Amino acid sequence: MNAQKLSKRLAMVASFVPQDAVVADIGSDHAYLPCYLVHNNIAKSAVAGEVVDGPYQSACQEVKHEQLQDKIIVRLADGMDAIEKEDGVTAVTIAGMGGPLIASILNKDLSRLTTVERLILQPNIHAISIRQWAQQHGWAIIDEEILEEDDKIYEVLVLERGQQHLSPAELLIGPKLIDKRNDVFIEKWTREITQWQHILASLEKADNTEAIKTKKEELMSKITLVKEVL
Q1: Nearest 5 degrees, angle CA 229-CA 217-CA 208?
Q2: Which of 59, 80, 140, 191 could form a disulfide with 31 if both were Cys (CB 3.0 to 4.6 A apart)?
Q3: What residues contact 87, with CB distance under 8 A and at least 6 apart?
Q4: Whether residue 191 sits in one domain with residue 111
């Protein structure tokens, strides 16, 4: 993977960036995504944010190597602190983190989202945290995709401002993904059910404390929700 050819996962994220957007890529690593977006005339300009010095230096080197210093700003900053008002950011991408971490990054300073029209988020796990955040903060899920790469399954969520009430199944599984129900979706949730059933079986052997009873009820509820969708 490089700035000219993205991984399948990042290419999916890039596909949802609006034409002529000003993009902030939070946790940009090597800045491959913003470089790709600018090179391909999708983004007018970009900010690559990194909180760790090593990846920050890598991003700086990549932007210099691609000769995009006039279009891409690399900032060493914690999460959304990479975005400044003067940037006029219209789209934010956050990829390759857990859902709860992505939600906490967005939540830290909501004022940084003032000019943002679209969020493109790719959680590695627990996408439910992002859907819950969206519902609580006036963002609606306009699209979702699920894909498999290198034996790992990834989800991409696309959010724009709006009110949306999601059912428990939609929060857990994804409203747009439920509609599409592709082969990767079936594979992911079939695996999840199997894993939950294994955990349930092991809990049956444990002391029936209140905590164990609650956990069992939670797992059985999830299994029921997913089976109804599948």
Answers
A1: 155
A2: 59
A3: 22, 24, 47, 73, 115
A4: no
DSSP code at position 146: E
Cα 105–Cα 110–Cα 113 angle in degrees, nearest 5 = 95
Do 137 and 192 belong to one domain? no
Question: Would you state the pLDDT for residue 2?
Answer: 81
Same domain for 69 and 150? yes
**H or E element: which one contains 172?**
helix 168-173
pTM of the model: 0.95
Q: Do 39 and 99 fall into the same domain?
A: yes
Name the β-bridge partners of 185: none
Q: Rounded to whole angstroms, how far apart are CA atoms 59 and 89?
A: 19
Q: Is the pLDDT of residue 211 over 80?
A: yes
Is the confidence at residue 67, as pLDDT, over 80? yes
